[in-house]
């Protein structure tokens, strides 16, 4: 992991004007006006490679942007086209456990909004809690359990700028139902029915993986998968009015049994990402293509 400077750590949030300056800086250097923003989960950075006519920015060169510190998150913002549709893709996301503030790890969502993005497609690697899930399943998120948020760590804590959104945003419609339906249709057409699921994602702070008792608790509470990301981005994306689609690649089975010899580890997470890379790319591409054919979707 790269060491963070004291100044990088200290900064908590950015103003509307600072976010706008970052978005304008990016827009000045590309002719593309992306309507779709994609976030690559751990080991899923290959999704960014499917873009054509790419303009690539390293996070370290983007004003106000944090830096990626996690293996499997390259740290590049990639503009490009997917079947003619202008997209922007985060090849690497930020997590709470990297030491950034929750406002800072979600800054890219506000930059997406100011770039003109209308639909955000988030991906993540997650541990499967649902006993029916297998490693390699793709779970479309229909809802979440926001544990940091329930404990007061919500990215919208602090002064609210109405130019982004309202003080008290609704979250009962966080995951766009039409986009969930679209994923189901496209998944069937691609022959992915056997490994496409829908479920509830629970987010914890990490970076330690869960104990057996924690996994059992999450399962009892209705979670189908567990991870350390995505939900914070969803809250900020919804606050500023973007439509959200999210999926989890089940990279490992959460350990629920004291007799189990399984141990969660990041290497397995990255390996599973590689195994399903092609199907993930096909699903996202087909969905984006369908967005293009129906303006109601964006
Ligand atoms: O959620 P993404 O970024 O895919 O990463 C997941 O993979 C890492 C653990 O292996 C954690 O960061 C977890 O959140």
Automatic annotation (TrEMBL):
Keyword entries, A-Z: Glycosyltransferase, Purine salvage, Transferase
UniProt-listed Gene3D superfamilies: Nucleoside phosphorylase domain
GO molecular function: purine-nucleoside phosphorylase activity
GO biological process entries: purine ribonucleoside salvage
Gene Ontology cellular-component terms listed: cytoplasm
Residues annotated for phosphate binding in this entry: 42, 73, 93-95, 125, 229
InterPro entries: Nucleoside_phosphorylase_d, Nucleoside_phosphorylase_sf, Pur_Nuc_Pase_Ino/Guo-sp, Purine_phosphorylase
Domain Nucleoside phosphorylase, chain residue ranges per copy: 36-288
Catalytic activity: 2'-deoxyinosine + phosphate = 2-deoxy-alpha-D-ribose 1-phosphate + hypoxanthine; 2'-deoxyguanosine + phosphate = 2-deoxy-alpha-D-ribose 1-phosphate + guanine; guanosine + phosphate = alpha-D-ribose 1-phosphate + guanine; inosine + phosphate = alpha-D-ribose 1-phosphate + hypoxanthine
Enzyme Commission no: 2.4.2.1
Pathway: Purine metabolism; purine nucleoside salvage
Chain residues that bind a purine D-ribonucleoside: 210, 252
UniProt cross-references to NCBIfam families, sorted A to Z: PNPH, PNPH-PUNA-XAPA, PRK08202.1
Function according to Swiss-Prot or TrEMBL: The purine nucleoside phosphorylases catalyze the phosphorolytic breakdown of the N-glycosidic bond in the beta-(deoxy)ribonucleoside molecules, with the formation of the corresponding free purine bases and pentose-1-phosphate.
Family: Belongs to the PNP/MTAP phosphorylase family.
Name the UniProt record assigns to this protein: Purine nucleoside phosphorylase
Originating species: Muraenolepis orangiensis
């Amino acid at each position: 992991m790269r060491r963070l400077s004291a100044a990088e750590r200290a900064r908590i949030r950015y103003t509307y004007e600072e976010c706008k300056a970052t978005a304008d800086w990016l827009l000045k250097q590309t002719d593309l006006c992306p309507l779709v923003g994609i976030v690559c989960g751990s080991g899923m950075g290959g999704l960014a490679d499917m873009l054509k006519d790419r303009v690539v920015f390293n996070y370290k060169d983007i004003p106000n942007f944090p830096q990626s510190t996690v293996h499997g998150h390259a740290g590049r913002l990639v503009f490009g086209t997917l079947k003619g549709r202008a997209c922007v893709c985060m090849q690497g996301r930020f997590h709470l456990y990297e030491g950034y503030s929750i406002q800072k790890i979600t800054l890219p969502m506000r930059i997406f909004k100011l770039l003109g993005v209308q639909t955000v497609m988030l991906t993540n690697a997650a541990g499967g809690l649902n006993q029916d899930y297998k490693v390699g399943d793709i779970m479309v998120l229909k809802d979440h359990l926001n544990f940091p948020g329930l404990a007061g760590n919500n990215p919208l804590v602090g002064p609210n700028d109405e130019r982004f959104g309202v003080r008290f945003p609704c979250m009962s419609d966080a995951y766009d139902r039409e986009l969930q339906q679209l994923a189901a249709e496209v998944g069937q057409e691609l022959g992915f029915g056997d490994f496409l699921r829908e479920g509830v994602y629970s987010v914890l702070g990490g970076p330690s993986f869960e104990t057996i008792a924690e996994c059992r608790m999450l399962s009892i509470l209705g979670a189908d998968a567990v991870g350390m990301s995505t939900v914070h981005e969803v809250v900020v994306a919804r606050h500023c009015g973007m439509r959200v689609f999210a999926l989890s690649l089940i990279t490992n089975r959460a350990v629920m049994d004291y007799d189990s010899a399984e141990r969660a580890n990041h290497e397995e997470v990255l390996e599973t990402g590689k195994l399903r890379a092609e199907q993930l790319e096909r699903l996202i591409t087909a969905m984006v293509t369908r967005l293009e054919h129906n303006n109601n979707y964006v």
